[in-house]
Structure formats: C-alpha cells, structure tokens
C-alpha cells in the first residue's frame, strides 16, 4: 500500500535504507538518489524483488535453511552426500560454506546458538529435528560448524555430547578461523580449509 503523500517520501526512503545493516547515512543517501534518478521500471523491479523474497522464501522443513520451493536446493539435490550433515547456526552460514565448494553433504540450521544469557537453550533451537534426522542411521558424520566464539563452542560441545552416543562421528571445523569471528566473514579459502581439516570431537 503506498503511503499518502505527506511530503516525506524521500525522507522515508532514507530512513528505511538507513536501517539496513552496513548502510550508513552516506550510503543511504547515495542509494536513495540512485533510485530517484532511475526510471520507474528499475524502482519497480527493486521493490518487487524485496516483496517477493518475503512472499516466496520460507524455511526448508528438513534443514531449516531458506527454500523457494517445498524443500531447499540442497535437500532436493539427489547428488549431495547424504551421509554427512553440517550443522550451522544461521541460513547465511550455509551460503558461506557453499561458496567454499569444499563440502557436498547436507546441512542443518539450528536457528541460533545456545546462550543462557539470552535464555536460548536446545529446546529453542532445531535440535530435536536434527536428532530426528540422525535416527535412521544413514548419516555417518555430523560436522559442527557453529562460529568459533563462546556460544558457538558451547553449542558444539552440547551437540557433540548428545550425538556421539548414537554412534555418529562428530567433527568440528579446524582452528584457523579467527577466534570470536563469524563464519560469514571468513574468506572462502580459510573456511574451505577449516572444513577439509576438520577434527574429530
Ligand atoms: Zn533443506
């Protein structure tokens, strides 16, 4: 629904752009003027891309990554190695690992990390669904790829403790990733190497 003309259309755009991550006031201004100076079709494509992503993208019911069809591209790809599941905290971590091209198994997105301070325990994450996926014995290895920070390590330790009794090999990304850093910001070579040189827990 377009807002009524209150004379603040440009300011509203600047405010909305300024709320985006990584966009400061200067960038917001640059983007706003770019849109203002573009033709109507360019503006329409941008706004419909934003609306479509909200309407058409949902969580994959198997791995909880983002999906545009019933299940995500990875879960629906028959060529993926179904004996491995890489556990990450957020869907964007899946993209980071996919970019390395070092991993061809499946994923499981927890939807966060264990954080007593934020009152997030295993029950608030997709841990039960992960355990369900391990029940039929097809998965031989679970790679814990939570971030190398305190909460990521706590989450990995917890998962390793509950998964190992199932007889599944549990591995953790090799060190070399910046401690306290975010998987998302690791370069592809470093992250790819961390996957290849993963260690048993
Ligand atoms: Zn999936």
Structure description:
With 201 residues, this protein is of the alpha/beta class. The chain folds into 2 domains: 9-56, Helicase, Ruva Protein, domain 3 (Orthogonal Bundle), CATH 1.10.8.420; 78-200, Dna Topoisomerase Vi A Subunit, Chain: A, domain 2 (3-Layer(aba) Sandwich). The chain has 7 helices and 7 strands. The strands form 2 sheets. It has a 5-stranded mixed sheet with strand order 4-3-5-6-7. β1 and β2 form a beta hairpin. Bound molecules: zinc ion (ZN). The site of zinc ion has 8 residues, from loops.
Strand and helix layout:
Layout lengths: L8 H10 L6 H13 L2 H17 L1 E2 L6 E2 L13 E8 L2 H10 L4 E5 L17 H8 L6 E4 L5 H14 L5 E4 L15 H9 L2 E2 L1
Parallel strand pairs: 3-4, 3-5, 5-6
Antiparallel strand pairs: 1-2, 6-7
Helix pairs in contact: 1-2, 4-7
Bound molecules: zinc ion.
Zinc ion (ZN) binds next to loops.
Series of H and E elements = HHHEEEHEHEHEHE
* Strand elements, count: 7
Instruction: Specify the biggest β-sheet.
Output: 5 strands, mixed
Molecular shape: elongated
| Beta strand % | 5-15%
